[in-house]
């Protein structure tokens, strides 16, 4: 049996969290049980106490919830702006860059869990960051609903750029986990119909819901990782792609044409079942002529950007993302 190296051992804080918790029986969970679990988990992730794990927001940014009227529905977004007198003041521009963010989680998750990274981007780029509180997966809500939410919010904000105080010519998308799948699909759609995107950031992306997505070596190697397990992935796939749905349409890596897309930064933690999703997607983008930078973080776990309090590598990843977007959104 091979010895576990330091780069394959999760950070101590993650190991302690795993030891203290008990994984639910995901595949046997009823709709009522999922709804109750989601409410509990999201309440904890949005609490002030959780910031010990999820990170404290940058004081140079303001954060508030806002409602967006979309076709047939209203959706909440979490908006991050540079504070008056902070790093973003005195830019001399009529509008700040826009970063459209989509959080991870799939069937749980809230934009509030990403306050640490998004407030930093807003303050330090500076930019307006709009994080989509998309519909979460359940027994009646497939992934296509969340994909539509991300796309519709992006188009809405760009269309009403003056109202939002953004420069539509300097727009990027940024997704984490499931959110990366949503933003990757948005980047593909934007190539055809606009808006013109300057960049896309995909953090620990899960981008293949076809059977091929389960065949990567990282899936079996890290099937019992502390922050994402094979059982969770199976449940995600079951809810995301109900019977009669073609999983290729929700799998960016299976797209026929990946050329002409916004340059990508693909952020991959190595202790992650879907690590090979990110690696292979970066390779496919480059093969199609789309610039793609792959950055790996040894010893980091899935969703590590939402847990800077227990995963030290999150700070370095945040700096990498900030510099990438600063270069892409300049001028």
UniProtKB/TrEMBL annotation:
Signal peptide: none
Pfam families: Abhydrolase_3
Keywords, comma-separated and alphabetical: Hydrolase
Span of domain Alpha/beta hydrolase fold-3: 99-305
GO molecular function, one term: hydrolase activity
Identification of the protein by name: Alpha/beta hydrolase
SUPFAM superfamilies per record: alpha/beta-Hydrolases
